[in-house]
Structure formats: C-alpha cells, structure tokens
Amino acid sequence: MFFSAKNPEPAIKALNLSKCYQLYQRPADRLKQYLWPHRWLGSRQYYRELRALHDINLMIMPGEVIGIVGQNGSGKSTLLQLVCGTLTPTQGEVLVNGRIAALLELGAGFNPEFTGRENVLMSAAIMGLSQSEIADRIEHIIDFSGVRDFIDQPVKTYSSGMYVRLAFSVAINVDPDILVIDEALSVGDGAFARKSFDRIMQMRDAGKTILFCSHSLFQVESLCARAIWINKGEIVLDGESAQVVSAYQTFLDKSAWNATPETPATARTEPASNTQHGSGSARLERIKLHVNDMLVQQAIVTSGESRMMIAVAFTSDPALPCPTIAMTIQTKDGRTITSAATWEDQFALQRAPSGAGQVCLGFNQLPLLKGEYLINVYLLCERGLHLYDAAEAVANLQVRQAGRLQGYFSIPHQWENNTVPHND
C-alpha cells in the first residue's frame, strides 16, 4: 500500500507485523497438509511453526537513517524482505510511502539467459520506472556498472563481480526514496567498491530514507542516528544509535562470556602473519610491532612499564582523499576493549605523491593488565566508514604484571587521606 507523496506520512510503517514459516520434515508432509482440510484425513498438523517476527510495530519518517542490529536468525532479514515486498506477512501489514531500492541479494531477479541490457530493462520496470524514465537512465546505469563491453551478452557469461556491479547499478540509479541495505555498505571490489560506497553516502546526504542492517556496530553507530535491536523476532530496543549499540554490545559480551572455551564468539585462535584481506583503492603493505624500541614478532610486555609502537605502511590511490587508520585491541574471545583512530584524534595522515605513506601509533607505559590480547589494524576511507583493508589478529600481545590488580586496565588514580573537615 502506498501513501500519497503529498501527505507527510511515515516513509515506512509496520503495524502488528508478524511472519511465521511452516517447516516440514518430509516433502510428503507438505502434500498431506495441502489435503488436510478434507475431513477424511482428520485434523492434523504436519508442520512445525517458526515465528521469525512477532507483533512488530515500527514507524520510520522520511530522511531517517536507521540501523538494524541483531544476531543471525533474529529476524532482521525477514523484516527487510517484508518492507521490500518480497515476503508477505502472516499477520499485520507494512505501509510504504515511496519507491524502494533494495541491496539484498543483488541480481537475484536476473534471468541468466537474458542479456545485461534486457535484465536492466526488466529490473528497472519491476522497480516502478516508466518506459521514458528507463530510456533516460539506461545509459547511465550501464556506464556506472562498468560492463558496457558485455552489456549485450547473456549474464550467465558474466563473472560474479560483473553480475553484482550491474545489479547494484540498477538498484542505486532508479532514484529510490527508500534504500534498504543488508550488510554491505559497498559492493564489488577495487575502485567499484569505493564508487558504490560514495553513491550510498550521496543518497544519505541527499536525505533519502535508509535502512541499514549490519553486524558492524561501528558502521551502524557512525552512519545511523537511530538503531533498532531485534532479538528472537521482537524489538528489544529502539532509540539513539549509541545507546542501542552499547546495550547490544553488552548483550554480545555476556553471550561470549557464557560460551564454552571451545567455541569462542569471534576470536581467532592464532595471530595472522600480517595477512591482509578486503579490497579497495588502498591497502595495508606491512605492519611492524616494536616493544621498548626493539622490533618483535610477538609482544611480551610489562603492565605500566613497557613502551609499544605499531608501525603501519600503506598505499592508496592518490586521486582519492587520504585514507584513515584505526587500531583495536581485543580479548581472545573477541571483545574489543579499546581502540584508536586517526579521525577521532584529528590526526591527518601524510603520503607521498605516489600514494604511499606510513604512520606510527605509540603507547607509553602500556596500562593493560595481565592477559593475552589480539591487535587489529584497519585502513578506511577519509570518513572512517568504508573499509579498504584489514589485518586482524596481526599480533599476539601478552601482558605481564607484578601486582594482583584485576581487570583490563590500570587507570590513573591517586589515594589521599581524608583531610577535608566534616560539616556538623
């Protein structure tokens, strides 16, 4: 159902929205259930129910950027599909005001036998564009995708990267009022990943309504003013993104703490050897760890005494703004206990005309208390949002201490005898 564009109604409104799936143990049970209404089979149920969403009430106003967080299986993707109309609700309804573009399963609706051009025409028509609108935009869609040389070939001959680029180009260039993103803020690889990210940011800055579902709490808090936490098909918390992310992170930490040691939540059990992953227009070249001015492979430090320095070398496309760098320290079970980022410290990286640069991050009298930690390094865009490259668990940090203090950090403090006179 669509509202009138002249009426200042919510962009999305969910009313008592529920979705229940019927799960059958055997294919024959589906047939039995189909015949179930006939009296001679009796009143039996041949399926079990999985309630993916339960009684969701939600209102999103035009121009809001909403983050949706929750564990796998919590109902996030089901909610997005109901909003997009690819699923029908079991109960309740979703009211939508405006054209939706969805970055869910890109290219899922493409016919592999059709050419790229034919799939563009078909997809744009399904998304609600008129023939004249399609004619005006088709060349721009093809140019943005970068697959013009193959646009009249069947998409079954495309590489996976070409397939995704064309699907993204269609979705992002239909001038949607509402953009739904499941996980990826950018798609494709290399230069296209940066271009797709820039296009999404342009839509956000233009006041489009955005629903962003992600496991990256950092991106949710950075991009969204409001966030919604869904668990077991119900909304746990809906509010300011920093508040929701903090509450959800506490929930995840408790879950990790209660997990058995054999199945940590997100930890790597072995440090990587400066192994980078990710792609984009910039990359990490090497990372070196120094303790007390000595180059080391594995850091063994003393709490409150050792000096640690992380040297990071990178290269980037000199035609793009200079990237930023972040570092996190995690426990072995995957909990991030501290971080540092150049954009937060308003530190501008320097690079040569070739795009190469190097930066050092130093810690004097490292305040970490005893334990074993992992160091992660990230190379991001100038906004600190789009991830170019990452080196996770690049170093294993073992901290020793002389005393018996507990926790993760020794924070600056002082003791004083109470010499302040009491007022009677």
Question: How is this structure best described in words?
Answer:
The chain has 8 helices and 18 strands. It has 2 domains: 12-249, P-loop containing nucleotide triphosphate hydrolases (Rossmann fold), CATH 3.40.50; 282-400, Distorted Sandwich (Coagulation Factor XIII, Chain A, domain 1). The chain has 424 residues and is an alpha/beta fold. Helix 4 crosses helix 5. It has a 6-stranded mixed beta sheet with strand order 5-6-7-3-8-9, sandwiched between helices. A 5-stranded mixed beta sheet has the order 12-18-17-14-15, with no helix packed on it. The longest helix has 18 residues, at 241-258. Helix content is 23%, strand content 32%. It comes from Nitrosomonas oligotropha.
| Total domains | 2
Structural class: alpha/beta
> What's the helical proportion of residues?
10-25%
* Spatial shape: globular
Query: Mean pLDDT, nearest integer?
Result: 85
H/E element order: EHEEHEEHHHEHEHEEHEEEEEEEEE
Keywords: ATP-binding, Cell membrane, Membrane, Nucleotide-binding, Transport
InterPro entries: AAA+_ATPase (IPR003593), ABC_transporter-like_ATP-bd (IPR003439), ABC_transpr_TagH-like (IPR015860), Bact_Polysacc_Export_ATP-bd (IPR050683), P-loop_NTPase (IPR027417), Wzt_C (IPR029439)
GO molecular function, one term: ATP hydrolysis activity
Family: Belongs to the ABC transporter superfamily.
